[in-house]
Specification:
Blueprint (H helix, E strand, L loop, with lengths): L1 H8 L5 E3 L1 H5 L8 E3 L7 H8 L5 E3 L13 E3 L2 H4 L6 H12 L22 E8 L11 H13 L3 E4 L25 H9 L1 E7 L2 H8 L4 E5 L2 H7 L6 E5 L7 H11 L2 H20 L16
Helix pairs in contact: 1-5, 6-11
């Protein structure tokens, strides 16, 4: 969406295909968003893409070079030796490789006008799952963290995918919450009105950061964090394997080495940095740049 947004700033007509983005199409009112192309139906994809002069893709679900004559794959940005995160790398791609005259480190995300940013100041979104199990901190420690946060006056909620929810309903007996959401858009609205985010390396962490929710992200290794850390709003990264030698041991044991106390202290530092950032803001009532204005 960063690439799409910057192309549009320079007068290019853009259409985006994607499952998650289509679920959030209301949050991207300035660009056409369609459902994803189906890898099982390349003939239809070829017909659909025939209307476009250029196709750009980061992780395409099908071999686009077989269905369109002009394809630019962006996966080289993931493998780049840059020390910048992906959000910055995509902006640099627009500026340096596409040579666009006007560029922004933004993606056009726009919150619906009826929502209030960080309305529930003490609500903490905890996202304890990820795309793979090796990225996930221990469940028992997430629960301990949530209980400590509640003792300190916060309102922690565990946010998981519908297919993961059954494995987390046991925390209800400890007075903790596991809200359910019908759509990704409803989840985005709920995150937008929350005060804080704590979670693993995941897409929800990027969404929270993109919504300018103060974000604490837990990563297994520094190299992975360098590339994939959220880089939109204010946020901190905590490396679980900071004191473990060797990449293989880091990936295996980071979740055991990372204590609840370290995460709690990192969250305290995030809160302090957020307060300092707010004090430097010209006006505390100024909405984020991505908030949709009413007319």
């Amino acid at each position: 969406m960063t690439v799409a947004h910057n192309l549009q700033l320079n007068g290019v007509t853009v259409t985006v295909f994607g499952r998650h983005l289509h679920a959030l199409h209301r949050w991207f009112p300035r660009v056409e968003v369609r459902p994803p192309l189906e890898p099982s139906d390349p003939a239809t994809s070829q017909t659909v893409l025939a209307d476009f002069s250029l196709v750009l893709a980061l992780h395409p679900p099908l071999n686009l070079t077989d269905v369109h004559p002009r394809v630019v794959l962006l996966d080289h940005l993931c493998r780049s030796g840059s020390k910048e995160p992906m959000a910055r790398r995509l902006f640099d791609f627009c500026r340096d490789e596409l040579a666009l005259a006007v560029t922004q480190k933004a993606n056009g995300l726009t919150a619906p006008a009826e929502l209030q940013h960080r309305k529930h100041a003490t609500r903490v979104v905890i996202h304890p799952t990820a795309s793979t199990a090796d990225k996930c901190w221990l469940k028992s420690r997430y629960v301990s963290l949530a209980r400590r946060l509640r003792q300190r006056g916060f309102d922690p909620h565990f946010v998981v995918a519908p297919e993961e929810r059954a494995g987390w309903l046991d925390v209800l007996h400890q007075g903790l919450n596991v809200p359910a959401f019908d759509t990704l858009g409803h989840l985005a609205a709920w995150v937008y009105e929350s005060g804080w985010f704590i979670g693993n390396d995941s897409g929800i962490g990027h969404l929270a950061s993109n919504l300018d929710i103060p974000t604490l992200s837990l990563f297994m290794r520094r190299g992975i964090a360098r590339t994939w850390r959220p880089d939109w709003g204010g946020g901190h990264v905590l490396i679980g394997s900071a004191f473990i030698p060797g990449a293989r041991f880091k990936e295996r044991f980071w979740k055991y080495a990372l204590t609840v106390g370290r995460v709690e202290r990192a969250f305290a530092r995030l809160r302090l940095a957020t307060d300092q950032r707010a004090s430097q803001t010209v006006s505390a009532v100024t909405p984020p740049a991505f908030a949709r204005k009413t007319t």
